[in-house]
Write a structure and sequence with these properties.
Elements (H helix, E strand, L loop, with lengths): L12 H11 L15 E5 L2 E4 L4 E4 L2 H4 L8 H13 L10 H13 L4 E7 L2 H16 L3 E5 L8 H5 L18 E4 L19 H12 L3 E6 L15 H11 L3 E5 L23 E4 L11 E6 H6 L15 H16 L2 H17 L8 E7 L2 E9 L4 E2 L3 H6 L4 H11 L2 E2 L1 E3 L2 E4 L7 H19 L5
Parallel strand pairs: 3-14, 5-6, 5-7, 7-8, 8-9
Antiparallel strand pairs: 1-2, 2-3, 4-10, 9-10, 11-12, 12-13, 12-16, 15-16
Helix pairs in contact: 3-10, 4-10, 7-8, 11-14, 13-14
Length: 454
C-alpha cells in the first residue's frame, strides 16, 4: 500500500509524482503504467518539468492553449476579477458577463445571439442537447462514429470513439444514433471523393428520413482528436441544407476547432455555414480557466421567452471564467492571431507534407490552419493502421505513443491518439519553433518506419 504523506509535509519532486499517482486517477488509461510528469513552469510555446527540461508544446497541451502560456493580459484579468468579485450566483449578472456577451456577437458566426456559459465543453454539449430537445419537442440526436463530445452521460452517449464503450449500455440512453463521419482518406462507406457526390452527408439525410423524432445532428466541423478530419468544401453546406429542409437543428461542436485553430474564428466560417447551436470551450480562455459556451440562434432564444428553460448549474457564468475570456478575445484581436494561424498553418502544412515521401509509415497528412494530423499506417496500400480502437481500450502498446515518447525525449510534446499524431501548437508559434518540432518528428518517425510491412 502506498504511504500517504500528511498534507503539511513538504514533498520532494519524486514524491509529488508518487502522491499524484497514488491518490488521483489518470484519465483514459489503465492506472498501473501511469507516471505523470511533474511540470513546474510554462511560458510562450514551452513548458518545463521539475528537472529543468523544457518541452516545445506542439499540441498546445490538449489543443487548447491557443495564446501560449503566461499571457500577461489574461493572467491580469483573472487576478483583477478575483479581487473585485470572485463568485456570484448565476441569477445575478456581472460586468464580465455583459462584456463577454457583447464581444461574442463580434466573433461568433452571424445569428448566434443567446448564450449559456458552462465550465467545460462536455457541459456545453449537455446544454445543447437539452436545448435542442426542449425547443424541437423531439428526442433523437444524430452523431458520427469518429467523434468526441465529452464524458458526462449525455455527451459520452453522443461520442463515437471507444471512450464511450466503458459506459455502455447505460450511456446509450434513448435518443442517440450514429452515422458515418466524413473521411476522404479512408471513407467509412467505401466511396471516393469527388465522385461520391458527398454520399456521407446523404447518408445522414437517409437516417433523418428513416428515423422518427430527430431533434438535431451534431458534428465537429473539423474533427478533433479522432484525426483532424477536414471535410470537402461541399459537405457542411450540404448538411446545413439537409437539416434546414427537414427541420432538424445543426449543432457545431467547436470545442477544439474554434478560436482561430483552423485559420478562422470558428471552423464553420471556412465554409460560411451558420449552425443553429454552436458549442465551444478550450481556446475561449486559452484554457487558463475552465469555460464552455453554448450559443444559440435568436429563434431558439425566442422560444424560451414563454417556455421554461430547464437547465442550470452552480458555476454557470462564473465571473472568474468570464473575465479571462474577454481578455483572450482582445489578445487574439491585438495579435491578429486569426491571420497568423493561416500563415503559420500553411508553413506547418508544407513541412509536415514533406515528411510523407521520406517515411513509409506516414499514410496521410491533413489539416487546416494550425490544426494537422499524420495518419500512421502499417501498409500504405491497404491503409491499415498499426493499432485500432480495441488496442487502445485493451492497453496495448501503441506505435503512435512510442513515436510521441521519442519526441518527448527530444524536447517536443505532441499528442497521439490510436493511429495518428495531432499537431496543434499555440497560435503564437514561430517558424523557427515549427522547424524544431518537425525535425524531432522526422527523427521519431523512424520508430514507426521499422514496423511497416509493405
Amino acid at each position: 500500500m502506498t504511504e500517504v504523506l500528511h498534507p503539511a509535509t513538504a514533498l520532494s519532486d519524486p514524491e509529488i509524482t508518487d502522491v499524484t499517482k497514488a491518490l488521483n486517477y489518470g484519465t483514459w488509461r489503465k492506472q498501473k503504467s501511469w507516471k505523470p510528469l511533474y511540470i513546474v513552469d510554462a511560458e510562450g510555446c514551452y513548458f518545463t518539468d521539475a528537472a529543468g527540461k523544457r518541452y516545445l508544446d506542439f499540441s498546445a497541451q490538449l489543443m487548447c492553449v491557443n495564446l501560449g502560456h503566461k499571457n500577461p493580459a489574461v493572467i491580469r484579468a483573472i487576478a483583477d476579477q478575483a479581487e473585485s468579485l470572485a463568485y456570484v450566483a448565476p441569477g445575478y449578472t456581472t460586468r464580465a458577463r455583459a462584456e463577454l456577451s457583447q464581444l461574442l456577437l463580434e466573433v461568433l458566426p452571424e445569428g448566434l445571439t443567446k448564450f449559456f456559459f458552462t465550465t467545460s465543453g462536455t457541459e456545453a454539449n449537455e446544454a445543447a442537447f437539452k436545448i435542442a430537445r426542449m425547443y424541437t419537442g423531439k428526442s433523437k440526436i444524430i452523431a458520427r462514429y469518429r467523434s468526441y463530445h465529452g464524458s458526462t452521460s449525455g455527451s459520452i452517449a453522443a461520442t463515437g470513439d471507444p471512450r464511450r464503450w466503458a459506459s455502455e449500455p447505460s450511456s446509450k440512453g434513448p435518443g442517440v444514433i450514429f452515422g458515418p463521419e466524413v473521411n476522404c482518406y479512408k471513407c467509412p462507406i467505401h466511396h471516393t471523393y469527388p465522385g461520391c457526390n458527398i454520399a456521407c452527408a446523404d447518408y445522414l439525410e437517409h437516417m433523418i428520413v428513416n428515423e422518427s423524432d430527430v431533434a438535431a445532428v451534431i458534428v465537429e466541423p473539423v474533427v478533433g482528436t479522432n484525426g483532424v478530419l477536414v471535410p470537402p468544401p461541399e459537405y457542411l453546406p450540404r448538411l446545413r441544407e439537409i437539416c434546414t429542409r427537414h427541420n432538424v437543428l445543426l449543432i457545431a461542436d467547436e470545442v477544439m476547432a474554434g478560436w482561430g485553430r483552423t485559420g478562422e474564428w470558428f471552423a464553420v466560417d471556412n465554409w460560411n455555414v451558420k449552425p443553429d447551436i454552436l458549442v465551444t470551450a478550450k481556446g475561449i480562455t486559452s484554457a487558463y480557466v475552465p469555460l464552455g459556451l453554448c450559443a444559440t440562434t435568436g429563434a431558439i432564444a425566442e422560444f424560451f421567452e414563454d417556455h421554461y428553460f430547464a437547465h442550470g448549474h452552480t458555476y454557470e457564468a462564473h465571473p472568474l471564467t468570464l473575465a479571462p475570456a474577454v481578455a483572450t478575445i482582445h489578445e487574439m484581436q491585438r495579435l491578429n492571431l486569426i491571420d497568423r494561424a493561416k500563415e503559420m498553418g500553411a508553413y506547418l502544412g508544407e513541412k509536415l507534407k514533406a515528411l510523407q515521401p521520406k517515411h513509409p509509415s506516414v499514410g496521410d497528412v491533413r489539416g487546416l490552419g494550425l490544426f494537422w494530423a499524420l495518419d500512421l499506417v502499417k501498409n500504405r496500400t491497404t491503409k491499415q493502421p498499426f493499432n485500432n480502437m480495441r488496442d487502445k481500450v485493451d492497453g496495448t502498446a501503441l506505435v503512435v505513443d512510442k513515436v510521441a515518447a521519442d519526441m518527448m525525449a527530444r524536447g517536443v510534446s505532441m499528442q497521439a491518439w490510436i493511429s495518428h499524431l495531432v499537431a496543434a501548437p499555440p497560435l503564437i508559434i514561430t517558424r523557427e519553433e515549427i522547424d524544431v518540432a518537425v525535425e524531432a518528428l522526422d527523427q521519431a518517425l523512424a520508430i514507426a518506419d521499422t514496423a511497416v510491412t509493405a
